[in-house]
Amino acid sequence: MYFYAEPGEKTYFFYPLKTSNPYSFNKTTAPFGQIVLDFMEIDPIEILDLLEKHSPDKQIMPVNQSYFQIRDILINRYGNVVVSLMLETLWNKHPYTSSDNNYYIDLINAEEKLCKMRLLRYEIAQFCAKGCNYNWLEDTFINYLNPTFQDIHVQISCRDGKLHQLYESFDIASVLSFDLMNIQYYHIQIKQCENCWKFFIPKNRSDEIYCDRIYKNGKTCKQIGYFEKEKNDPFKKLFTAARKTQYARIGYNKHIENYRDKHYNPWLKAAQEAKKKFESNNDIDGFRQWIEDNKNAF
Known about the structure:
Elements lengths: L1 E5 L4 E5 L12 E4 L2 H8 L2 H11 L5 E3 L2 H14 L3 H7 L2 E3 L9 E4 H23 L7 H9 L6 E8 L2 E8 L2 H14 L5 E2 L6 E2 L13 E3 L2 E2 H11 L2 H19 L6 H22 L3 H10 L5
Antiparallel strand pairs: 1-2, 1-8, 2-3, 4-6, 5-6, 7-8, 9-10, 11-12
């Protein structure tokens, strides 16, 4: 698979492998850090089960139409390109064959590689759970990653008036190592969702505790998590109801210039401070009275 990294956007751009001009295809994008997250979502044993199911002799899987059907099933299920890289890691090359039928998967070797990927998935999950502690990765690099220069082939390509380093790799470990390096270099934060317990990259605020994955009934962890937390937090419930009332007044008072800056923002700051004060004293009645007394004070 071809890909290049755009540091300014902190984004990868992926292209299909079998083409002389990867820029002629629609690209798939992923932010820095997403390769690591997507890898943890995929069950390597499911890949092995599908390969064995579609292999005539349970030993060899040619990289043919059946293989690409399996790849598409997995991509549709997991919704990312990392599964393609995991599959390409399993490829072997036939010697002295035509270019149309060069590759195959040895299922015995594939089982060993996929079991190793499963262990690697656990190690990377531990790395993320420990706040991206790179000391944890030292043994992981030796035992599971240990990429070499030959695992990623680099070429220089020109597009849109700029030069890019275009990479080609058949090896998931090398691409994971590349992503881990970018996580470190660009100080990308990875957190664990307090609802589904999967890992995610905060989009807006560093103190986010819920991810944006769809969890239940079309609602995200963020929507469900904050609602459940609010139900069990009377201070937050009072504050949210008052904030919504005050925010609605912005629309009602469009005729007042800078209403948000003059009225809503001062109220919001005072309400946040009041919530903190009354919450520290566990005085819910006092906070309720403060909201009532100050609903028209700003």
